[in-house]
Design brief:
The complex is a heterotrimer.
Chain A lengths: L2 H13 L3 E2 L13 E7 L7 E7 L6 E4 L6 H20 L5 E4 L2 E4 L5 E3 L2 H14 L13 H15 L8 E3 H6 L2 E2 L4 H4 L2 H8 L7 H8 L14 H17 L5 H33 L7 H20 L11 H25 L1 H10 L2 E10 L3 E3 L5 E3 L2 E6 L10 E4 L2 E14 L2 E9 L19 E5 L32 H4 L5
Parallel strand pairs in A: 2-7, 7-8
Antiparallel strand pairs in A: 1-9, 2-3, 3-4, 5-6, 10-13, 10-17, 11-12, 13-16, 14-15, 14-17, 15-16
Chain B lengths: L9 H4 L6 H17 L5 E5 L6 H15 L3 E5 L2 H18 L5 E4 L8 H4 L4 E4 L10 E5 H4 L7 E6 L7 H7 L3 E8 L26 H8 L5 E3 L2 E2 L4 H11 L6 E2 L6 E4 L9 H13 L1 E6 L9 H16 L3 E4 L2 E4 L5 E5 L2 H11 L5 E4 H4 L4 E7 L10 H4 L1 H8 L2 E10 L2 H6 L18 H12 L3 E3 L2
Parallel strand pairs in B: 1-7, 1-8, 2-5, 2-6, 3-4, 3-5, 6-7, 9-10, 12-18, 12-19, 15-16, 15-17, 17-18
Antiparallel strand pairs in B: 11-13, 13-14
Helix pairs in contact in B: 3-4, 7-8, 9-17, 10-11, 11-12
Chain C lengths: L1 H12 L9 H6 L7 H9 L3 H7 L10 H29 L8 E4 H4 L5 H18 L3 E5 L3 E5 L2 E5 L4 E5 L2 E7 L11 H22 L8 E7 L6 E7 L1 H14 L2 H6 L21 H9 L16 H7 L9 H6 L6 H9 L9 H28 L16
Parallel strand pairs in C: 1-2, 6-7
Antiparallel strand pairs in C: 2-5, 3-4, 5-6, 7-8
Helix pairs in contact in C: 1-3, 8-9, 14-15
The structure holds iron/sulfur cluster.
C-alpha cells in the first residue's frame, strides 16, 4: 500500500468507479489462456466438486463430481481435467526458438483462476494427484500424475514475483485499479468487477454490494455458498446417492446436478473473460515480455523434465532446495519491483512522492568528462545536472537509473537545494559504448526530461550452496533422497 | 499488564554480593571450556546488549590461535569484519606476534586506514593470496564463495542476524563453531513473503541460530550475564521487556554512571530541559507531545528529537562513569527511528549537528553515551507487525551508556490496547517470545514514570 | 459496583435470555478490542445475529451441512472403540503415558445435572486426578467456568482435557487438514485463541495457574484423509491476548457510564422468539455505542454489514493501512478536499494535507503523461525498449 494507491481509493469512493493505479499492463496475457474456475466441497481438504474450464469464452467445459466424497469419482474428475490441461500444456512444446545452446518455447501455457484461493486449490489438487501411479493396486488414468506435476508447476510459478504462468484474476486486476472498498473486499471477483466496470446507471459501491449477494452472484469459488450447499446441492447429492446406477432417477439426479453447478459457475465464467478483456485494454509494459520470457524458459525446462519421466515434485523443499528457491524469489522480486516503476509513471509516482525517484530537466551536461578508474585507466564518466521539483531524499553516493535509459547508471554526486527545487548532479556510466566520446544520443541532452529512480534491481548474488547430499549438520545433514513410494501413490483421498 | 513476572528474576537473586567481573569471567570460562573441549560441534552464546560479545570473540580466537590450529571467523557486514580485525590484530600483536590475520574481502574493497597498515594483517580478495594465516576472517557472503577447504574451528559473530540460508552456504567450511549473538535484536528478514517453508527445521527465513538449534537441540547454549554498556538504570527494564527468561545484570551499580548537565535556561526549551533533567536523574526520559495522528515524518516530533540532541550539547552534558568524566560530544549521541524517511526528516531538523541518525537496523551493535529515540508508534493510529517488532524497540532502547530519551506522541498505550498479539499461527514453528506487543507494553509502563508533557 | 454493572448489562439485553459464552465468543473478544459497541453487546449477552437480521443487515456466517457432517464424522472417529484413536495420539505426544488411558465422558455420565452441580463434580474430578498425579485420564466434555466482566460464566463443554503427570492439557479437535505438516495459519490461529480461553478457564476452575500448561494439543485430519494427526502448539501469545482482554472487560463500567441511562437493545422477542421492537429504535440505540469498524470485522462480527454501512465515507472502511497512508485523516471528503486544495486543513492536518497535495499532483501528472505517451506508443516501441539489464547475471 502506498499513499498514491490510498489516494486513488479515496478518489474511487467519490467517483463511484475504480481509479487506475497503473497506466500500462504489468501482467502478460496469453493469446489463449486456459481459464479455470474450480469449486470444492465444503469441509473437505481438497474435494473437487466442479469446474468450468477452457480457452474459449464461448465454449467452456463443465466438469462435475456427483459425489465428491467418492474416491473413484474424484479420480474420474482428475482424469477428465488432465485430458484438458495436459494437451493444452503440450501444445506449447512444439514451436521453439534457439536460446544459447538450447531451445526455448516461443509461447507458454497460462492458467487464470478467479482469486488467490483458486491458486491454493490448484496447488492442493496438484499435491493430491502428482504422486499417483498408473499401475499397481491404486492405478489411476495415465493423465492424472501428469496433471499433478503440471498443476504443481503452475502453483509454484505463481510464487515468483512477476510470473504470469498462473494468475489470480482479482490480484491482476487489483494491480491496475483501486476500488472504493478495502483490499479484503476486492478478493470478491464480482464486487471488484462491479467497481472496475459498473453497470450503467449504478455506482461501483451499489453494484459491489449487490455483487456480494450470493443469490445474485454465486461466489467465484472454490468455496460455494453454504445456502446453496444446504438447499440445492445436498438434496441433489442425496438423490444421486440413493438412486440405482443407470436408473432414470440417477440420470435425472445427474442432469439436475450439472444444471445446478453450471448455474453456480457460469456467472463467474463470464466475469473472468470480462475481467481479462478489461486487462487487455491496457498496453503492456515494456518489461512484460522479458518476464514472460522467464516463464517460457521455466516452462520449456519443466516440459523437458516431465517428458523425460521426471519424478513428481517432493512434498516439501529440502534445506538446499529451500535456500535456492528463496534466492530465486528474492531476485525475481527486486527485479519486478524496479521494472514495474520503470514501465509505468503511475507506479514511479509512488517513489517520487517518497523521494526515492525524481523527475526533472537536464540543465547541464559534461559529455566528454574522463576520469581515472581504480586501475588508473581513463574512462568516460559524463556529468549531468537535473533540476527537479520533486522532494529528493536520495543521498550523494546513491545509484539511480532513468526509465528511458535503463542500461545507464547514474551515481549521485551532489544534491543541492535551490529556490525553486533541487539540483541533482549525476555521474553516468554504462550505455555509451566503448568510444572515447560517447556516441550521439547515448548521454542525456540539455533540456531532456528524465525520471531517475533509486529503486533498482538489487544485486543479489546466486548462492553457493552445497550439493544436496552434502547438506551440513547445522541443517539436519543429508536428507533421505526422495523416492516416490507405493505409499504415496496409494495415499487416501476421500 | 498481566504478564507473569514471578520467574523472571530468579536468575538474579544469586549470591548476596554480585561481582559482575567474576560472574562474567565464570561464564566466559565455561564457554571457552565447552568450545575448546571439542565435545560439541556447536556452542551458542546469547549475549544481551553490550555484554562483551566482541571481547569474547577476540578471546576465543586468541585461544584457538595459540593452539596453532587454523580458525575462520564469520561476521555479517564488512564493518563488523573490520572492527574485529582491528581488535584481533592489536590483541595478537601483544600476545602472539607471529600470528597472522587474513582479511578476505570482495574484489574492489579498500581497507579503512585503521586496518590497512597493521603489520600482522593481510587483505586480499583471493584466499590463496592470503597465504596460510592463523586466522582468516570474512563476511558470510564472502565465505559462501570459498570452496574445497575446511577449517577445524570457526567463530560466527552476530549469528542471530544471520539468515539460515547463509549458514547453509558456509557450514561445510568448518568442523565446529562458536555462535555468538544477541537474541533480542532484529531478526534477519526477507523481502519475500512466503509461508512455504514454515515449520521446517531448516526454514531459510529463520535465523542461523534458530535453525542450528532446531536441528541440534542438544548443543549447549550459554549466555553472557553482564551488560557493560547499559547503566544500572536500564538493567531491570531491558531485561524484563526483552530477555524475560534469562535476564542479565548491569556491570555498573546504582549511581555509578551519570549524566551531568549545565544549567537550564528556562523559556521555550523548558520541557526539553525538564526531560533532560529527568534523564540525568533516572537514566530515562519520555518527552510526550500532544496526541495527534500524523504522517510518518511528523515534523513536530522530528523537531523535538533534534531539539533534545541540540540541547544536550548546549547544556554541556558530561558523561560520568565511576570517577571518570567526559564531555558528551555530538559523536557520542545517537538518534534512532523506525523508518528511513523519519531519519531523513530528523537529519533535516538537526541542521549540521554531527549526531548519528539512523534506523534501528543500522544502529544494531553500536554504542553511545546518550540516545534519543523517536518511538516507532508515535502518531500512529494503527500498529503493524513492523512497528511492534520487539527487536526494533530493543535495539533503540539499548544503545546507551548513560541515558535514553524517547520522544512520542501521547496515545501509544491506546494503540497497543487495540492490537493484541493474535493472528495466523504456523504448526511446528517455534514461537518467538516475548512478542513485541508485550515488550512494548512493558517499556511504555516504565517510560510513563519518566514522562514530561509538552504543553 | 459489580451488581450495578450486572443490572445495567441486563437492562441493555432486555427480556431475552443471554447468549451463552463459548470458546469462540471468548476468542472473538480479541477480534476488535477497541470496539466498545461489540464489547458491550457481547458482554450483555445480546444475540448479535438476530439483532443484525432484524435491523436489516443480516450476517452471512452460514455453515454448509457438508462441513458439519465432516466435523461430526471426525469427532466420532476419534472417540470410537473407547477412544482408541485419541489414546494412540496422546501416547505419540507422551510416549511414557500408560497404555491404558482412563477416559471419562462427563457429558454422557449424567446430562440432567444442574449446571452448578455438574461444574462442581467436574472440578472435583479433574482436581483429584491432578493432585493424585497418577496415570493418565482423559476428560471428555468437562464443564469449565471463566470470569468474564465480573461474572462467572460456564463455557460450552466442547473440549477434551487430558491429565497426565499432574498437568491438565487442553485438547482441541479441528477438522481442517494438516497437509505435509502445514495447516492454514488463520485456522490454527483461531484454534489457538480458543484454546487459550479454555486454558484460562481450566486454570480458574482448578484454582491453580500452574495446573494447565500454556500449550494445546491440536488434533486434525492428516493430508487428504480422515486419519487424525496431533500437534503441540505453544499458545503463550494467545494466553496473553485473551487474558489482557478479559482484564479490560472488568472495567466495562467506564464504557457503560458513558451511555445514555435508558439505552437498551431489547429485541422485544415474542413467544416464538421473533423480534417485535421497531428496527429504527434499535438502530438509534446502536448508534450510541461507539464502533470501530475495519474491513476485518466482515469476517468476525455479526454486526459488520451494519457497521460498514455506517462507516461509508470514512477512510477506516478502506482498511487500516489505507487510513494510515492517508495520514490518519477520518473522512474521504476531508482527504479529497485537502488533496485538491478545496478545503483548508486545520493546523493539525497541515502535514498530511501537504502530502496529499503532492500525491494528487503526481497522480494527475502521471495519468496525463501516460495518456500523452499512449498516443506515441501506438506509433511504435518507445525509444529504448530493450530488456533492461537483469539485476543478476
Ligand atoms: S462489526 Fe461493528 S460492532 Fe462488530 S467489531 Fe466491527 S465495529 Fe465493532
Amino acid at each position: 500500500m502506498s499513499v498514491i494507491t490510498a489516494y486513488a481509493r479515496a478518489r474511487a469512493v467519490a467517483a463511484g468507479v475504480a481509479q487506475p493505479i497503473a497506466t500500462v499492463r504489468h501482467v502478460h496475457l496469453a493469446e489463449r489462456p486456459l481459464v479455470f474456475v474450480p469449486l470444492t466441497l465444503a469441509g473437505e481438504a481438497n474435494a473437487p466438486l466442479a469446474a468450468m474450464i477452457g480457452t474459449d469464452a464461448e465454449k467452456p467445459t463443465l466438469l462435475t463430481v456427483p459425489q465428491p466424497r467418492n474416491r473413484d469419482l474424484r479420480f474420474a474428475f482428475a482424469a477428465r481435467l488432465a485430458d484438458i490441461v495436459v494437451p493444452y500444456v503440450d501444445s506449447f512444446s512444439h514451436e521453439v526458438e534457439p536460446l544459447r545452446d538450447t531451445v526455448c518455447a516461443v509461447d507458454a501455457p497460462q492458467l487464470i483462476v478467479p482469486n488467490p484461493m483458486g491458486i491454493e486449490f490448484t496447488r492442493l489438487l496438484g499435491r493430491s494427484t502428482r504422486f499417483r501411479r498408473t499401475d499397481g493396486p491404486y492405478a489411476v488414468a495415465p493423465g492424472v500424475p501428469l496433471l499433478g506435476r503440471w498443476l504443481t508447476y503452475f502453483a509454484e510459478r505463481a510464487e515468483h514475483p512477476g510470473s504470469c504462468a498462473l494468475l489470480a484474476l482479482t490480484d491482476a486486476l487489483s494491480l491496475h485499479w483501486a476500488t472504493g472498498q478495502s483490499a479484503l473486499e476486492d478478493t470478491n471477483l464480482a464486487a471488484l468487477m462491479a467497481w472496475i466496470d459498473p453497470p450503467a446507471e449504478s455506482s461501483g459501491a451499489q453494484a459491489a454490494r449487490e455483487a456480494e449477494n450470493p443469490k445474485v452472484w454465486p461466489p467465484a469459488g472454490p468455496a460455494t455458498d453454504p445456502e446453496f450447499d444446504n438447499q440445492v446441492l445436498a438434496p441433489l447429492i442425496r438423490a444421486y446417492d440413493t438412486s440405482a446406477p443407470d436408473s432414470p432417477a440417477r440420470q435425472r439426479a445427474l442432469d439436475e446436478l450439472e444444471q445446478a453447478l453450471a448455474s453456480q459457475l457460469e456467472p463467474t465464467w463470464h466475469l473472468m473473460w470480462r475481467g481479462i478483456a478489461h486487462l487487455r485494454s491496457l498496453p503492456p509494459g515494456v518489461s512484460v515480455a522479458g518476464r514472460w520470457a522467464a516463464d517460457r524458459r521455466a516452462f520449456t525446462d519443466f516440459h523437458r523434465y516431465v517428458s523425460e519421466g521426471g519424478a513428481p515434485q517432493p512434498r516439501r523443499d529440502g534445506a538446499v532446495a529451500a535456500a535456492y528457491r528463496l534466492n530465486l524469489l528474492e531476485r525475481a522480486r527486486t527485479t519486478y519491483e524496479a521494472e514495474r516503476a520503470f514501465d509505468d509513471p503511475l507506479v514511479m509516482a509512488t517513489h517520487r512522492l517518497t523521494g526515492e525517484a525524481f523527475q526533472g530537466t537536464v540543465v547541464s551536461v559534461d559529455r566528454e568528462r574522463r576520469v581515472p578508474n581504480e586501475k588508473g585507466n581513463l574512462v568516460t564518466r559524463p556529468l549531468v545536472t537535473v533540476h527537479t521539483k520533486d522532494p529528493v531524499r536520495l543521498p550523494a553516493g546513491a545509484k539511480v537509473a532513468a526509465a528511458t535509459r535503463r542500461s545507464q547508471t547514474g551515481l549521485i554526486v551532489s544534491v543541492e537545494t535551490v529556490p525553486d527545487g533541487t539540483l541533482v548532479t549525476l555521474e553516468l556510466s554504462g550505455g555509451m559504448g566503448r568510444a572515447k566520446v560517447p556516441p550521439p544520443g547515448s548521454v542525456p541532452a540539455l533540456d531532456e526530461q528524465l525520471c531517475y529512480s533509486g529503486v533498482l534491481p538489487e544485486n543479489i548474488p546466486s548462492p553457493a550452496l552445497p550439493p544436496v547430499e552434502e547438506t551440513p549438520w547445522t541443517h539436519g545433514g543429508p536428507p533421505q533422497p526422495y523416492e516416490p513410494s507405493d505409499e504415496d501413490a496409494a495415499e487416501v483421498w476421500e | 499488564m498481566t504478564v507473569d513476572t514471578a520467574s523472571r528474576h530468579s536468575t538474579m537473586s544469586g549470591p548476596a554480593r554480585f561481582d559482575p567481573a567474576a560472574e562474567a569471567e565464570r561464564a566466559t570460562q565455561a564457554i571457552l571450556a565447552d568450545f575448546t573441549s571439542a565435545h560439541y560441534r556447536g556452542v551458542v552464546v546469547d549475549s544481551p546488549p553490550g555484554a562483551g560479545k566482541s571481547t569474547l570473540v577476540v578471546r576465543a580466537a586468541a585461544e584457538i590461535a595459540a593452539t596453532g590450529e587454523p580458525l575462520m571467523i564469520v561476521a555479517q557486514t564488512n564493518e563488523q569484519v573490520d572492527d574485529l580485525v582491528d581488535r584481533l590484530a592489536r590483541r595478537l600483536a601483544q600476545n602472539m606476534p607471529s600470528a597472522r590475520i587474513g582479511r578476505l574481502s570482495r574484489a574492489g574493497y579498500t581497507a579503512p586506514d585503521r586496518i590497512a597498515n597493521l603489520p600482522n594483517v593481510t587483505v586480499d580478495s583471493d584466499l590463496t593470496a592470503l597465504g596460510e594465516p592463523t586466522i582468516t576472517i570474512a563476511t558470510a557472503a564472502k565465505w559462501a564463495h570459498v570452496k574445497d577447504r575446511t577449517w577445524r574451528w570457526a567463530i560466527v559473530d552476530e549469528a542471530y542476524q544471520m539468515r539460515s540460508d547463509s549458514l547453509l552456504a558456509i557450514a561445510s567450511r568448518f568442523e565446529r563453531a562458536l555462535f555468538v549473538g544477541d537474541p533480542g535484536q532484529l531478526d534477519p528478514f526477507s523481502t519475500v513473503d512466503s509461508d512455504r517453508w514454515r515449520g521446517l527445521t531448516w526454514d531459510p527465513m529463520q535465523s542461523a541460530v534458530a535453525v542450528l538449534l532446531r536441528n541440534n537441540p542438544d548443543l549447549p547454549v550459554h549466555r553472557l550475564p553482564v551488560s557493560w554498556r547499559l547503566p544500572h538504570t536500564a538493567e531491570r527494564i531491558i531485561a524484563d521487556a526483552f530477555y524475560p527468561h534469562t535476564g542479565f545484570r548491569s556491570g555498573t551499580g546504582p549511581g555509578e554512571r551519570g549524566l551531568r548537565l549545565g544549567t537550564a535556561s528556562g523559556g521555550s526549551t523548558a520541557p526539553i530541559d525538564a526531560v533532560l533533567n529527568e534523564a540525568a536523574a533516572s537514566g530515562w526520559g519520555l518527552l510526550e507531545l500532544p496526541a495527534r495522528y500524523t504522517v510518518r515524518t511528523d515534523s513536530e516530533a522530528a523537531a523535538a528529537v533534534a531539539a533534545v540532541a541540540r540541547r544536550l550539547i548546549e547544556r554541556r552534558a558530561v558523561a560520568r562513569s565511576a570517577d571518570q568524566e567526559q564531555p558528551i560530544t555530538p559523536q557520542r549521541i545517537a538518534i534512532g527511528a523506525a523508518h528511513r524517511d523519519q531519519v531523513a526528516a530528523i537529519r533535516t531538523a538537526l541542521g549540521n549537528l554531527p549526531v548519528a541518525v539512523d534506523t534501528a537496523n543500522r544502529l544494531q551493535g553500536r554504542e553511545y553515551d546518550v540516545t534519543v529515540v523517536l518511538h516507532p508508534l508515535s502518531g500512529r493510529r494503527d500498529a503493524s507487525a513492523f512497528h511492534l517488532e520487539s527487536g526494533r524497540l530493543c535495539v533503540l532502547a539499548s544503545r546507551h551508556r548513560q541515558a535514553c530519551v524517547v520522544v512520542a506522541r501521547a496515545g501509544i498505550r491506546e494503540v497497543l490496547d487495540t492490537h493484541p498479539p493474535t493472528g495466523p499461527v504456523h504448526l511446528s514453528e517455534p514461537v518467538k517470545f516475548p512478542d513485541g506487543w508485550v515488550a512494548n507494553q512493558t517499556v511504555m509502563a516504565h517510560l510513563e514514570a519518566h514522562r514530561v508533557r509538552v504543553r | 459496583m459489580q451488581n450495578d454493572t450486572d443490572a445495567r448489562l441486563r437492562r441493555i439485553r432486555g427480556s431475552a435470555r443471554p447468549t451463552r459464552h463459548n470458546a469462540r465468543t471468548i476468542a472473538a473478544l480479541t477480534g476488535n478490542p477497541g470496539c466498545s459497541r461489540r464489547t458491550i453487546v457481547d458482554t450483555a449477552g445480546v444475540d448479535k445475529e438476530k439483532l443484525a437480521r432484524h435491523i436489516g443487515f443480516p450476517s452471512r456466517f452460514g455453515q454448509s451441512e457438508f462441513a458439519i457432517t465432516r466435523t461430526n464424522a471426525f469427532q466420532t472417529l476419534l472417540r470410537a472403540d473407547d477412544y482408541a484413536e485419541l489414546t494412540r495420539l496422546l501416547r505419540e505426544v507422551f510416549p511414557e503415558a500408560p497404555e491404558q488411558i482412563q477416559y471419562l465422558d462427563l457429558e454422557a455420565t449424567d446430562n440432567t445435572d444442574a449446571q452448578d452441580q455438574r461444574y462442581a463434580r467436574d472440578q472435583a474430578l479433574i482436581s483429584q486426578a491432578i493432585a493424585g498425579n497418577t496415570g493418565a485420564t482423559l476428560f471428555d466434555h468437562p464443564l469449565l467456568s471463566l470470569n468474564v466482566a465480573g461474572q462467572n460464566v460456564y463455557l460450552e463443554p466442547e473440549l477434551l482435557v487430558f491429565q497426565y503427570g499432574g498437568s491438565a492439557y487442553v485438547v482441541q479437535v479441528r477438522s481442517f487438514a494438516v497437509i505435509d505438516g502445514q495447516a492454514n495459519g488463520e485456522n490454527v490461529g483461531q484454534a489457538a485463541l480458543q484454546a487459550a480461553g479454555y486454558v484460562l478457564a481450566l486454570r480458574q476452575t482448578l484454582g491453580n495457574p500452574d495446573a494447565a500448561p500454556p500449550e494445546v494439543l491440536l488434533i486434525c485430519p492428516k493430508d487428504f484423509s480422515n486419519v487424525p494427526t496431533i500437534t503441540r502448539l505453544d499458545i503463550r501469545w494467545q494466553l496473553i491476548a485473551v487474558e489482557y482482554q478479559l482484564d479490560r472487560l472488568t472495567h466495562i463500567d467506564t464504557l457503560l457510564d458513558a451511555l445514555p441511562p435508558h439505552l437498551n437493545l431489547d429485541l422485544g422477542l415474542d413467544a416464538s422468539g421473533n423480534p417485535t421492537r421497531p428496527a429504527t429504535e434499535l438502530i438509534d440505540a446502536l448508534r450510541h455505542l461507539p464502533a470501530r469498524y475495519f474491513p476485518e470485522c466482515l469476517s468476525n462480527c455479526d454486526l459488520a454489514f451494519f457497521c460498514r454501512h455506517e462507516a461509508t465515507g470514512h477512510t477506516a472502511a478502506l482498511g487500516r493501512s489505507v487510513r494510515e497512508e492517508l495520514g490518519g485523516i477520518e473522512t474521504i471528503a476531508e482527504v479529497l478536499g485537502f488533496a485538491e486544495g478545496t478545503v483548508a486543513p486545520p493546523e493539525e492536518w497541515d502535514e498530511a494535507a501537504a502530502l496529499l497535495r503532492g500525491a494528487a499532483w503526481l497522480y494527475a501528472e502521471s495519468v496525463a503523461a501516460a495518456a500523452y505517451s499512449g498516443e506515441s506508443a501506438a506509433l511504435g516501441p518507445s525509444r529504448d525498449s530493450r530488456e533492461p539489464e537483469r539485476g543478476v547475471s
